[in-house]
Input
Amino acid sequence: MSVYPSDRLEYRQGYQREYKARFRAKHGMSSSAAQRKANSVTAAKHRETEKRRYVAYGRRNRMQLRDEVFEAYGGFVCACCGESGRHFLSLDHIFNNGAEEKRRGFRGGATLHRRLKQQGFPKGYQVLCYNCNCGKRVNGGICPHIEVLDEGDWQ
Output
């Protein structure tokens, strides 16, 4: 049984038909199609917003983890030359065994930082600037600054 009397029901159905016709004429699509389109636009905006939030969250966590690791290994200062610019600093394997770790399947970056934290910051790592790190690799495990100091040329 209908809630509306039959004449009220007919009036309502007629009004709905007229409304749908007016909407289609004005917008070129049905109201349900317009709603689907609006929903898809809203969903796309939501996905984009969530993606930005997720990326920012991950970046913030990686930077926080990096800060913890660097503080555990002497802070944001190069152990060789004293460089303190955060963007220039990196972790160095004191015993030059980074390639061996890679062969065993270990990775660098945030993965390395997580592993070091889980292991309680084991010995064998130090903070070096990228210059000293590359110089150490090219110079057989000894930073060029140390050789210069030994020769007495550097002041």
